[in-house]
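Our preliminary data section would be incomplete without showing what the modeling component actually yields. Below, a chain of 383 amino acids is followed by its predicted structure, encoded as tokens that our downstream tools consume directly.
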Amino acid sequence: MQAFSQLITVVAISFALFFHTTGSRPQLQEQPKEEQNQKIQVAILLDVSNSMDGLIDQAKAQLWTMVNTLGRVQCENKKNPVIEIALYEYGTPRNERESGYIKQINNFITDLDSLSENLFALTTNGGDEYCGHVIYRSINELKWDHNPNSYKVIFIAGNESFRQGTVSYTKACDAAKSKGVIVNTIYCGDRLQGIREYWNLQAECGNGTYSNINQDAKIDDIPTPYDTIIYRLNEDLNHTYIVYGTQGQQYYSKQKKMDQANTTMSKKAGIKRAEVKSNSSVYNNAGWDLVDKAKEGEVVFDKIDFKTLPDSLKNKTKDELKIIVKEKQKQRASIQSQIITLGQKREQYIKEQKNNTPATATLESEIERIIKDQVQKFGMKIQ
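Predicted structure:
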């Protein structure tokens, strides 16, 4: 017992000496909280009934303006958010009645060429438009980010009564609010008619907005002195890609196919697409392009199957390939910089030509306006 008392005394003296030396009690070091990356997740729900040909044309032609806007968003930590876009069609009898005449065209993806290809594949066919149902399905089917600081948003565009179908819009809005998803409605037609048909959901869906457009409005396509130069630079840009992998050539062919499709649709679509391709934070093809993939580090060259490279590169050494890729990266950066600069000059030229004439509201203008306003609520801003 005496030995135990002596041990206690020694321990007490040791602690007293420690506290006297350090001048404070030992503190547990707080572990830094892991920073969650912010995302922008956009679900586009398009009415593809018979009267919506103009809406689909606007979506095809104006996708790249929306993506261009998203690509200029920056978070408070100066990083660019990951951008994912999903696409649904609704209102056509080619889809099953039990499913609400709804089809998910693609889940959240970052592959913008595939998204554009999907838009160009959309066709119209008369049917019943179940707005509540398509919102509810998109809320439950898509993998919405859990980070409360991510901007999660639905844009639903169409016409006819919002109250059609067996799933009520109030149920859909409750589901959206439970996951922090903003629902914006865009009515194709007269504003007051849209309100009469219950498209004004601001009260039910929280912070969403209601707007209306003329879905048959002609695409604003003013020619400028910069168009031809940007097209040529876009061709030069395509020559900086180095395909790899079993599907590399397939994706490269899709890229060129969508260049052609968008340019044929309108000058503006082709040029806005070129501008998006010049923003590596949003248009990144690391899955099939070695120039983008190499940004992940030199370890990439240890994993590449040289047999999947273009014929001119298959017999190169690893060091030779590194030099070629580095040169392509420099070329690409220079071309992208030129496209961005010319794109800005082009916008200024168009603004002067319009002479402040009010523009007709289209799918493009409304989505762009809404995004610019709403991202600010999540600590993001447009550069």
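DSSP finds 13 helices and eight strands in the chain. The chain has two domains: 39-220+360-382, 227-354. Preliminary results of this kind motivate Aim 1 of the renewal.
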